[in-house]
Design a protein that fits this description.
Blueprint: E1 13-17, H1 23-33, E2 37-42, H2 45-57, E3 61-66, H3 72-86, E4 91-94, H4 114-139, E5 142-147, H5 160-180, E6 185-192, H6 198-211, H7 215-222, H8 234-245, E7 256-259
Helix pairs in contact: 1-8, 3-4, 4-5, 6-7
């Protein structure tokens, strides 16, 4: 059954780079349900085709193309494809990310390995923004939404590569907001905490099994520090992406919006 639609983003064209089972998928679905023509890009053709079919079956408008954000040519091609297919571009959501090594201290890290993480999380996001800026200027306005992480608020041991990239992206986003504001282009950052969706559910199930505790016990431990007694879902985070893409946030630029059920306050 089709999901209820709105006209908040009627006829807007939005690119979402980085499509997976979590926020990328939910952001694309939410943007389409708000009336946008959604162009999705990632390195995995099968995932793109499946999500495009889901959006279309839901009554939305979607097109897709393979895009590796570590390639300047791929980013430019995705923007050109969006303009050719739908006549322009109004927003880019930069969601592609590299999770980093996960369990290596800075002392023990091979810092050359950090380059791959920076290549995706910082430079890939900025490549996507660079490619989009001429198209947004042709529209006379636009929105860029960078997807960041709560790790910039609460750094964790052994996650130095990921934390460093997200901190760099945070700073770059604010600089870009200063640089392109006169063109009517807004640049904002969404800062999710842990999101209740397929990746976290799978992690919780595995962690519970490894510890010998129940799924519910491990889940309760995760929400212990939340102001709200639950973990925000990836779908709820996606609604804030829609807000930042829309004219509802027209007076906002250079801002970071935390969506984490009150685990941290910025």
């Amino acid at each position: 059954m089709p999901h209820p639609k709105s006209s908040l983003l009627a006829d807007r064209v939005v690119i979402v780079s980085g499509i997976g089972p979590g926020l990328g998928r939910q952001a694309a679905l939410a943007l389409a349900r708000a009336g946008a023509h959604v162009v999705i890009g990632s390195r995995t053709p099968g995932a793109l085709e499946a999500l495009a079919g889901e959006i279309t079956n839901d009554g939305g408008s979607c097109a897709y193309d393979v895009c590796d954000t570590t390639s300047t040519a791929d980013c430019a091609a995705l923007v050109a494809f969006a303009e050719e297919r739908f006549g322009g571009l109004d927003c880019v959501v930069a969601n592609a990310f590299h999770k980093g090594a996960m369990s290596v201290t800075i002392e023990d890290a091979d810092l050359d390995d950090w380059r791959d993480v920076f290549e995706v999380n910082v430079l890939g996001s900025l490549r996507m923004a660079q490619a989009a800026l001429p198209a947004l200027r042709r529209r006379g306005s636009g929105s860029i939404v960078f997807v960041n992480s709560q790790i910039i608020r609460r750094p964790k041991a052994t996650r130095g590569d990921y934390a460093a990239t997200k901190a760099a992206l945070f700073s770059a986003a604010q600089t870009l907001a200063r640089e392109v504001g006169r063109d009517g282009i807004r640049v904002n950052t969404i800062v999710p905490g842990r999101m209740w969706g397929p990746p976290l559910i799978d992690f919780t199930r595995a962690a519970a099994a490894a510890s010998g505790r129940s799924f519910d016990e491990h889940h309760q431990e995760l929400i212990r520090d939340m102001a709200l007694p639950y973990i925000a879902t990836d779908e709820e985070v996606a609604r804030v992406v829609v807000f930042l893409a829309s004219d509802m946030s027209v007076g906002m630029t250079g801002q970071s919006v935390d969506v984490n059920a009150g685990e941290t306050f910025s």
